[in-house]
Amino acid sequence: MEAALGTVRKQPASEAVGRDASLSEGKVSTSQHDFTSSCSPSFSSSLGSVSSLLSRCRTFKVLVIGDSGVGKTCLTHRLCAGEFPRRTEATIGVDFRERALDIDKEKIKVRVGPFLFAHHLYGKHPCDGLRSLPLWRFTYAALFLIGNKSDLRDASRADSQVSQELAMDFAKAHGMVFFETSAKNPPRKRVHGRRGDVEPLQQSKVEDIVTAVGTTLKRHKSPLTAYSPTYSGRTQQPRNKNNVLKTCWCV
Ligand SMILES: Nc1nc2c(ncn2[C@@H]2O[C@H](COP(=O)(O)OP(=O)(O)OP(=O)(O)O)[C@@H](O)[C@H]2O)c(=O)[nH]1
């Protein structure tokens, strides 16, 4: 279920494709009420409140930040529900989804939402999207850089794409953990480039990203906010009729 926090929600996708077989419905919490009630045993009221304190799940907010069209909403769907939405609409405000995780025997909840960069931050070159990301790092504690749309990677268009090398350097410089994946067609297992490739192509399963985010968050004693910025390797090109970006690779 989506929880909109004082914002206009996107219309939920009517259909979804490519659902992760590994993600059971039960892993996605349907609402805070459902989730906490399943955690709290029914003791007497005083014992019950102590018990519910002990068993209360910590909830962490994860903001997925990036330029318009980089795939924040699709990535959020994929991370939380294991599916790629067939139809999305432009993000207005923040549209949260929840997912329950079991990390080293502790249950935590991550509340993930796409968040749009302000338009005036956009530039014309794909790398401009990267330049605006550091503005956010002062507000949040755990940082992940996710290169999305790896399925559109095209060696013949290298000049309009953000190279993995650049992305990794950027992530390192700003203390971020870097992943590359595709919300639409994520690799089933971690993919390594062949020896002799121009760049060391590596793609991660979405579940690896979820686990890494959950593990990082769990280490923190008190809830904090993490964000997973996406960055755009696309040029300012119009979408085609099917609302799919034609030529760009977006990471
Ligand atoms: N090929 C491919 N297309 C993708 C992928 N992720 C998203 N898309 C497409 O990219 C377009 C934009 O996706 P959204 O998730 O709506 O992007 P957004 O960043 O939320 O966009 P705004 O709401 O405008 O901020 C849609 O047409 C998606 O189908 C991906 O991994 N691969």
Automatic annotation (TrEMBL):
<dbReference type="InterPro" id="IPR001806">
    <property type="entry name" value="Small_GTPase"/>
</dbReference>
<dbReference type="Pfam" id="PF00071">
    <property type="entry name" value="Ras"/>
</dbReference>
<feature type="region of interest" description="Disordered">
    <location>
        <begin position="1"/>
        <end position="43"/>
    </location>
</feature>
<feature type="compositionally biased region" description="Polar residues">
    <location>
        <begin position="27"/>
        <end position="36"/>
    </location>
</feature>
<protein>
    <submittedName>
        <fullName>Uncharacterized protein</fullName>
    </submittedName>
</protein>
<keyword id="KW-0342">GTP-binding</keyword>
<dbReference type="GO" id="GO:0003924">
    <property type="term" value="F:GTPase activity"/>
</dbReference>
<dbReference type="GO" id="GO:0005525">
    <property type="term" value="F:GTP binding"/>
</dbReference>
<keyword id="KW-0547">Nucleotide-binding</keyword>
<comment type="similarity">
    <text>Belongs to the small GTPase superfamily. Rab family.</text>
</comment>
<dbReference type="InterPro" id="IPR027417">
    <property type="entry name" value="P-loop_NTPase"/>
</dbReference>
